[in-house]
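Fold it.
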Amino acid sequence: MGHTYVMSDIHGMAELLEKMLRKIAFSPADMLYILGDMIDRGPDPAGVIELVASRKNIVALRGNHEDMFAEWYEYTEDKSEGYFYNTYEILMSSDSAREKIPEYVRWMKKLPLYKKVKSKDTCYVMAHASTEGIFEIWKKKDTFLWESGVTGSRRSLPGYISIVGYVPTFILRGYSKEPAEIWRSPDGRLLDVDCGAAFPEYGGRLGCFCLETGEEFYVSAAAE
């Protein structure tokens, strides 16, 4: 029986993702959920996308950065002014990645906004920024991608443990420069697993949470 892992906000840090998979000894029996923001900021967005998209036991959700990039690419006729972040520039600098941009965009647009997962007797609900819109009749995309109030208000959903990313946990801890850690609400029913992988200057690193064991794993760009 494998394990179920959750991480978020890799932001182009492909080396950290590979390092984490080695650290948790990720196997075909395991399952990994990535809660969006796999691109922008870091140096290797294509590396992250290729790895994630190639593994059947990795499920990626859409983050606001995937959503922004896909919409910018589809609706911006003159791309000479560039994209807000570095992803387009990096992809265009590689012949192989440049040819695959339309494929990457189609992949991003198909990513789900949320997932419900049951592990043992515990029900989890996951989204990039907020899980609060899941029980709404009209599910609004922006709630899942942009609404950070769930961590600010410490709210969770009845009957579920909510897991989100979006807000780096060093912000919730007052911009401490100590190594970032997964954040839990006082009642333990809301987790933020965005440990700021692309912000080493604030102690940011990539965090990963195991649903079955409650273990936390961390890797950083710094030597460990």
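The first strand starts at residue 4 and ends at 7.
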